[in-house]
Amino acid sequence: MAVKEITDRLPDFEFDLITALMDIKLKRQEKIGQVNVYRVGIGIPWIDKLYLALRGWVLGFKLHQERGYQAVWSIMASFSGFAALGFKLKARIPFLLTLQEGDPVKKILKKVKFVRYRFNEIFTLADGLQSISYYLEDWGRHRYSLITTSSLIKTRAR
Q1: Domain residues for 133?
Q2: What pLDDT is attached to residue 145?
Q3: Among residues 11, 29, 47, 152, which is most buried (max CB within 10 A)?
Q4: What is the mean pLDDT of residues 90-112?
Q5: SS3 (DSSP) at 151
Q6: pLDDT one-digit tens code per residue, 130-140
Q7: Nearest alpha-carbon partner for 95 in 87, 106, 104
């Protein structure tokens, strides 16, 4: 819903969204508002989330070769963050990270303990950080004192 609300307000832009399938009843490809939605996986949520994180960037890069994206945007530093990072590294385009996490930071860090280095790269290699709260902005900036303010695009919903 958040993506639809944001993209509906940007009528001069086209968006392609790569997300986890999560339910076999959903269409693998459809257009919702301004967004072309592509769903990857087999319809089992935990498998689809992992697939998105590990291989979502491949579909993104294939689409990029056809469409020539100007940037990659990840909402949340979770499974989509890993996919966006892989895509950024392959396509060499700017990466915007929106922090909209709902879980407590301790829980997030526990979940990513085996891939902590790569998780940190989601923050260190982002070209811009946008957050929905001061708390998440501080967390994003703190992630290993990662992002210098001189290279950071800073926006926050008020």
Answers
A1: 2-156
A2: 54
A3: 152
A4: 93
A5: helix
A6: 998 888 988 88
A7: 87
Q: How many domains does the chain have?
A: 1
Cα of first residue to Cα of last residue in the chain, in angstroms, is: 18
Pairing of strands 35-40, 154-156: unpaired
Which sign, positive or negative, has the C-alpha torsion 107, 127, 20, 90?
negative
Q: What is the CATH number of the domain that holds 99?
A: 3.40.50.2000
18-27 long-range contacts, Cβ below 8 Å, gap at least 24? 18/52, 18/56, 18/59, 18/60, 18/63, 18/80, 18/83, 19/52, 19/80, 20/45, 20/48, 20/49, 20/51, 20/52, 20/79, 21/48, 22/48, 22/49
Cβ atoms < 10 Å from Cβ of 6: 17
Tokens representing 49 are: 């989330």
